[in-house]
Amino acid sequence: MAITNGTSSSSKYLDPSTALEHLATYESRDGLSVSELLNSKTHGGLTYNDFLLLPGKIDFPASVVQTETRITRNVTLKTPFVSSAMDTVTEKDMAIHMALLGGIGVIHHNQPAVDQAAMVRAVKRHENGFITDPVVFSPDHKVRDVLDTKVRLGFCGIPITDTGKLGGKLVGIVTSRDVQFRDPEDSVSEAMTKDNLVTAPSGTTLLEANELLRTSKKGKLLIVDPNGCLVSLLARSDLLKNQNFPFASKSPESKQLYAAAAIGTRPADRERLALLVEAGLDIVNVDSSQGNSSYQIEMIQWIKKTFPNLEVIAGNVVTREQAASLIAAGADGLRVGMGSGSICITQEVMAVGRPQATAVHSVAEFANKFGVPVMADGGIGNVGHIVKALALGAGSVMMGGLLAGTTEAPGEYFWHDGKRVKTYRGMGSLEAMEQGKIKPTTSKGGSKNALHPTGSKPTNVVENAATSRYFSEASAVKVAQGVSGDVTDRGSIVHFLPYLHVGVQHSLQDIGVKSIKDLHDGVRAGEVRFEMRTASAQVEGGVHGLNS
């Protein structure tokens, strides 16, 4: 072959300027479409580690990527992050901070209904626009009542009316400074501030009210009618939260944080739900390991009839058939996953479940036809898993172990093998199933050796969330479907969730899409492509080849 100036003859190669035109001659884009990837007949069931997304074209900064998404038919959040309804993951602090940071926390129900309702109430009172149901005292209340409110609800700036109710004539306000160094038995009338109250007339807009708060330098703005009767109030602390947490998940009407909580499918859960709704609940998660049951279907139908404005997330499901039953019953969202969590052993013990990537795609493909968003629950260990779940059609991801080591998760830190950790347990673990239960007794005369002992029905048993979730309340012998362990300290959710958010933004940038909606649209159109990973490819993609 003739060589000219150190290069081969140009006739061997195509003109570089025609590269894009030549690319268009290929029958399909590089990689696999989502339907080709998730073909169970060809590839079996896949997990998040079994595939990758192929890169697209970057022509925008990661900072412009929008992560807004729907978690139910009518609720949209700024980020796709949800904390799991587990007793070592989500209580009041986690729910509040998840909502402030643009996600939402589902408060677990492995606790008395009144305690769960108190947590919902604390979330709803944490941030407001106009507070239309404030705590109000009368002059006859005691200082101890103010201090008790501070402990229970986290604030003590309380308006005082002559009746002790909203709508009564405003006579003062009591704050933390007013009750400092006071005898708890002193009456509020002795401690409260009566003069120079900062008020505004009813009809004042939120924008005007915020400006009055800024200029007054007071903690509360009291809204009164022409007769001087209290109708609502506005808190300075909420102005600061609006500045510090611009992504906060709030109801468009009340400007309060969204509150979500889980319940079971048993008759007692109807009474529990009534307390939660009274406390201000926005979203209920009907929680079961296997959602396609007559119990859950009847519960969803009852909820939609009794509380028609309440959003219902149903589950868990992993198949189209399961999803269809719950959608037909009235579900506003679906929770997908069975046995894929790090502390869940359902797939091994019960031989039932589905690899999570396949489950998410199968259910999302079906549910999206009905406008029902899907929440991927389980198997989320890093930012990559979050993005993969979203690419397969999920609108949000529910995280347990990833968040259990944060400051806001329930429980105390302790040291284990030189690491600072927190306890994390599956709701199917024996420890969770024994939570709050009275030790069972058996009637006399029962066989101690039979596989199913006669006369061994427990008496005085208190049902809990774990046993009802796994349909085990009446079982004399409990079969664990989860384990207990500990997870490493991850610091505060205030720092960790923004890290996850920025990670998702950069990942979508690499894929070449500017929003979760664009990601979903691109996957459906076959423009966002995938690739299978062999075992050796997974090794290559991880840390390798280092001495230490």
What topology emerges from the helices and strands here?
Layout: E1 3-4, E2 7-8, H1 19-23, H2 34-37, H3 40-43, E3 51-53, E4 69-70, E5 76-77, E6 81-83, H4 92-100, E7 104-107, H5 113-126, H6 143-153, E8 158-161, E9 170-174, H7 176-179, H8 188-191, E10 199-201, H9 206-216, E11 220-224, E12 230-235, H10 236-244, E13 260-263, H11 267-279, E14 283-286, H12 294-306, E15 311-317, H13 320-329, E16 333-336, H14 346-350, H15 356-367, E17 374-377, H16 383-391, E18 396-399, H17 401-404, E19 414-416, E20 419-425, H18 430-433, H19 465-469, E21 484-488, H20 493-511, H21 516-524, E22 530-532, H22 535-541
Parallel strand pairs: 6-7, 6-18, 7-13, 10-11, 13-14, 14-15, 15-16, 16-17, 17-18
Antiparallel strand pairs: 1-2, 3-22, 4-5, 8-9, 11-12, 19-20, 20-21
Q: Which characteristics define this entry?
A:
548 residues, 22 strands, alpha/beta, 34% helix, 8-stranded parallel barrel
Main sheet overview: 8 strands, parallel, barrel
The termini sit apart by 50 Å
* Overall residue-averaged pLDDT value: 85
Number of helical elements: 22
Q: In one word, what is the shape? A: globular
Question: DSSP strand (E) fraction?
Answer: 15-25%
Short summary:
With 548 residues, the chain is α/β, with parallel strands linked by helices.
Describe the 3D structure.
By secondary structure, the protein is of the alpha/beta class. It is built from 22 helices and 22 strands. Strands 6-7-13-14-15-16-17-18 form an 8-stranded parallel β-barrel, surrounded by 7 helices. The chain is globular and about 95 Å long.
